[in-house]
Design a protein that fits this description.
3 domains, 21 helices, DNA Cyclobutane Dipyrimidine Photolyase, subunit A, domain 3, Serine Threonine Protein Phosphatase 5, Tetratricopeptide repeat, Crypto/Photolyase_FAD-like_sf, 47% helix, FAD, Cryptochrome/DNA_photolyase_1, globular, Rossmann fold, five-stranded parallel beta sheet, 7% strand, alpha/beta
């Protein structure tokens, strides 16, 4: 068993965490590293908790509205999902030209991976991510800004790396946030310096470091070929003393992890388990509790995970949650996918109904088409504008105009 710390992968744990959220305190302290952030994102990302439930909690406990900071931040999550639904895999490429026309490196620097750059907030963030699978949003922005603008590393390389370790890793939220920092999904680069760190995380003060400079200097570096090199011990010493952190599990996965899944081969005899019953396919972003009278079949698509590997800690989070909400888990390689499709079309094996929840993650988002089954629509908090909105402020304004008020949204959701 892998220690997941404060992030127990269950709906009960999510609801317990939600009950402790105070929107007023969140709004006042969320930018500080020791602020009262919700830390609900791992459960939200993997479908154990909905944005509607978070909003309803705030509405019932403090009477908050659409203008409240908590709802505003939930709106950012829905904005990123909106863009992903509209443009698909294009979120994995520059949404607009970057701030520097030169060529960014694809490889992450060794000193960065070892948490030995000499910049205290960056080194702390890297090690904390490896250890916990979570980072405060401010720390995520600092890491992205440091890598892209000061070390000239491709935002895509950094985003893929961080996505694999985050328990709450979501392609839309993660990759579009990196693009926002990089300036390829915004109109300017996001920059930070030692003064900014001192304000929001004094325990990570880095006066005298390479980022102890003005924003004008940092802007000049971001828009040119200049870089800030690390100051510290040699990489050879770092490797011995710190190591690179836990690795990401590409496909095919470690055999021990595969055995933990308790997976099996799809065949006609086994498919009789759901004949005549309701069948729900459960992917990693829809890990809600079981429904009575429904057979829950967990599905893992190796084509996705070979391209976007996860850390062992994240796999543990997902697999433990799947064990709670699924009757069986199958690896949908080409053979199993074909056998499952044939079983769902066999009159002797056909379920009374078949469904799968929506996700925009590649491969998983196409399963309903490939298996010819019903896909449930996304569970949204805010009404979605029909046309693509590339500005959050315009998206949120349109969505709020369509919603009317948070009271109306909650009343609609509960009636």
């Amino acid at each position: 068993m892998i220690d997941l710390g404060q992030f127990e992968p269950s709906r009960d744990a999510a609801l317990s965490k939600l009950r402790g959220v105070k929107p007023s305190t969140y709004g006042k302290t969320r930018n500080f590293l020791n602020g009262k952030v919700t830390k609900l994102s791992p459960w939200i990302t993997h479908g154990m908790l909905s944005l509607k439930e978070v909003a309803e909690h705030g509405w019932k406990t403090e009477g908050i509205g659409l203008e409240d900071k908590l709802i505003f931040e939930l709106g950012w999550r829905e904005f990123f999902q909106h863009v992903h639904r509209q443009v698909g895999d294009n979120i994995l490429r520059d949404m607009r030209p970057g701030v520097w026309p030169g060529k960014y490196a694809r490889e992450l620097p060794a000193d960065f991976l070892h948490g030995q750059t000499g910049v205290k907030p960056i080194d702390w963030a890297v090690r904390s991510l490896y250890e916990t699978g979570y980072l405060h949003n401010h720390a995520r922005m600092w890491v992205a800004s440091y890598l892209v603008h000061l070390r000239k590393v491709s935002w895509r390389s950094g985003a893929d790396w961080m996505y694999g370790y985050l328990l709450d890793g979501d392609l839309a939220s993660n990759h579009l946030s990196w693009q926002w920092v990089a300036g390829t999904f915004s109109h300017k680069p996001y920059l930070f310096n030692a003064e900014n760190v001192q304000k929001y995380a004094p325990e990570l003060a880095c006066k005298g470091s390479v980022i102890d400079t003005s924003y004008d200097d940092l802007e000049d570096i971001a828009r040119s070929s200049k870089t800030l090199q690390p100051v510290g011990r040699s990489v050879s010493n770092e490797v011995q003393e710190v190591g690179e952190g836990p690795g990401l599990q590409s496909w095919p996965m470690d055999k021990d992890l595969l055995n933990l899944m308790g997976t099996r081969k799809v065949d006609a005899e086994w498919c009789k388990k759901w004949a005549g019953k309701a069948l729900k396919l459960v992917h990693p972003w829809a890990l809600r509790e079981k429904r009575v009278g429904t057979y829950h079949l967990g599905v893992i698509a190796p084509q996705f995970h070979s391209k976007f590997p996860w850390s062992e800690k994240r796999w543990a989070f997902v697999l433990q949650a799947m064990a709670r909400c699924c009757d069986t888990i199958v690896i949908l390689d080409s053979d199993n996918l074909q056998n499952l499709r044939m079983a769902l079309q066999n009159e002797a094996l056909v379920p009374s109904s078949v469904e799968i929840d929506w996700t925009a993650h590649p491969v998983y988002c196409d399963l309903h088409t490939r298996l010819r089954i019903r896909q449930n629509p996304p569970d949204l908090l805010l009404p979605e504008p029909k046309m693509l909105q590339t500005s959050f402020s315009k998206f949120y304004r349109k969505a709020c105009d369509m919603a009317g008020s948070l009271d109306d949204l909650i009343d609609t959701a509960t009636t």
